[in-house]
Design brief:
Elements: E1 6-7, H1 14-17, H2 44-55, E2 60-64, E3 71-76, E4 92-97, E5 102-105, H3 108-116, E6 120-122, H4 124-128, E7 137-140, H5 146-164, E8 166-167
Antiparallel strand pairs: 1-8, 2-3, 3-4, 4-5, 5-7, 6-7
Helix pairs in contact: 2-5
Length: 172
């Protein structure tokens, strides 16, 4: 990846251009709010590793969300460059849920790419409650092993790019 900071576009970020296809069938996600993943949840150590990595993103803090969702929110300190659609509410741009799945907005072309590779579904509230959430809200499936954790981490970084408005390599 080019090490230069670039303004986001609809072009697929290099970090997910070569996204492998997720193996197996898509896990079932509850239609009823909070729309948790019903099967193939992450082992606790993988979820904790994902939280540790997210806490290392520049300008990001982990906080309990005010939403009625069992999750920790990734909060952006400075939201001046991100688009409003990149946030779930206030400064929250992703929710890492207790099942290991992640609710995140993605630029639509990026989200479509992730969907086609089998790593996410459209958030059920987008489908069944028109207007409850904007269409760029996705649920990325919980990683089942270390390899999937590294792939999901790349997708989480794209949510971070969307929230910052910039694509910039992140060193952790």
């Amino acid at each position: 990846m080019d090490n230069k900071k670039q303004r986001i576009t609809v072009d697929i970020p290099p970090i997910i251009q070569e996204l492998p296809k997720r193996e197996g069938k898509a896990p079932e996600v509850e239609v009823k709010y909070p729309c948790l993943q019903k099967e193939e949840m992450s082992p606790e150590h993988l979820r904790n590793e994902l939280l540790d990595r997210a806490a290392g993103l520049p300008g990001v803090s982990l906080k309990p969300t005010d939403l009625n969702v069992p999750a920790l929110a990734l909060n952006m300190e400075d939201t001046t460059d991100g688009t409003e659609e990149a946030f779930i509410r206030d400064k929250e741009f992703a929710l890492i849920r207790t099942d290991g799945s992640i609710h995140m907005p993605l630029e639509l072309a990026w989200g479509e790419h992730v969907l086609k590779r089998g790593w996410a579904c459209i958030h059920p509230l987008v489908i069944y409650m028109a207007g409850a959430l904007p269409p760029q809200n996705f649920i990325v499936y919980a990683p089942r092993d270390e390899e999937e954790l590294n792939i999901v981490w790349r997708i989480v970084q794209c949510s971070y790019y969307y929230a910052t408005g910039w694509i910039e390599p992140v060193e952790l």
